[in-house]
Amino acid sequence: MFLLDRRNFLQVTAGAAAASLLPGSALARVGNAEVFTSDEAGLLVDSAVIMGERSAVLVDAQFTAGNAALLADMIAATGRRLESILITHYHPDHLLGLPILLDRFPEARAYAQADVQAFIAQVAEPMYAQIAGSAPAGVFADRVVVPEVLGADHLMLEGERIEILPPMAGDTALITPVHIPGLDTLIASDIAYIDTHLWMEEAAAPGGVEAWRASVAQLRAIGAGTVIPGHRKPGSANDAGVFDATIAYLDHWDAARAASGSAEEFRMKLLEGTGDLGFAFAVDRAVAAAFPG
């Protein structure tokens, strides 16, 4: 489970507390979507805004209050009415910004697939208390919001069907990617990363990497021309190359783990050739998961 202890959390949020303009955040137009990528303090997470002529649907709500507010500004600038917010999984970098969005767009409704929603309902309050309780005031929203159960396998946007795929494994066990066939677009969430380290804390458990690989194969088989990953650097690709990058990192992880006899050796091998990747915070957690204690 993604729970941050105080020491590691402060490594992430120190920059966010000091940076009011969040210069590392970025916005890109991808087909019929606007994709907002947070700064490093926001863990380089993607939020996608699927746009119709008058309305919009948001997928994932960011981590810090600052990034969520910038995302809200971006949505407002499109002139569309935000109808729905879909949370793909329980991780706080996709969830904790939700109150900021709902306060800004009170007509919007937030949803998660039933299994995902049930897990969020179980862990949201203690997760928020641990994270926000360790942070300077204002880094996070003033509360956590649990989304409603999505009672269907899709959302509609001005007659366009937005498919919410069944939960599958990536950096956690229950992630719901989003497929918009009419736009040839797949929002992979945290089943795909590019130009960043992968969050391996949960996938390090037995069978985790194999399940992740299977999910990548399942999404790749859809054949979407536009693929929006869960984490990337601003300007990174939004195509099937994100699957190649994810599998390459999983291969590297497996090889480094198999060749290492200690946490120190594993860390050294994991960083070989990957030192320029973003989301460096994930490395210490990966090492601890592979070599606990």
TrEMBL record:
PROSITE patterns: TAT (PS51318). SUPFAM superfamilies: Metallo-hydrolase/oxidoreductase. Residues 1-28 form the signal peptide. Residues 44-231 form the Metallo-beta-lactamase domain. Pfam families: Lactamase_B. It comes from the Bacteria. Keywords: Signal. InterPro entries: Metallo-B-lactamas, NDM-1-like, RibonucZ/Hydroxyglut_hydro, TAT_signal. Gene3D superfamilies: Ribonuclease Z/Hydroxyacylglutathione hydrolase-like. This is MBL fold metallo-hydrolase. It comes from Roseinatronobacter alkalisoli.
